[in-house]
Write a structure and sequence with these properties.
By secondary structure, the protein is α/β, with parallel strands linked by helices. The protein has 8 helices and 5 strands, in the order βααβααβααβαβα. This is DUF3368 domain-containing protein.
Length: about 130
Amino acid sequence: MSLVVSDTSPLTNLAAIGQFGVLRALYGSLHIAEAVWAELNFAGKIWPGRHEVANADWIQRHTPGNRALVAALRQDLDPGEAESIALALELKASLILLDERDGRHKALGLGLKPVGVLGILLAAKA
């Protein structure tokens, strides 16, 4: 299986519609940035996907090492998107799961292959 990094929105959206399991079925394992974990716990609330990620031994959390890149990406993106893109570059991920238009545009510009929730669901259906 290929190495896949996920931003927050695919995790929360798939959990909200009861399809979180397709991530493991399609990709085997996922890598997320610490900022994604922080977003799943934002403001002390329990967001969709939080429990699923906490209980998934097939999801690994990382702190991206290139803080300068994260800071540069933060000029236009939220923390989860910025760290996810930096992490995907560091890990040489074959895919980054990302929904937001600005984040997808940045990811493409940096040579990454973004896939959103719709693409994930279409792949699962196929």
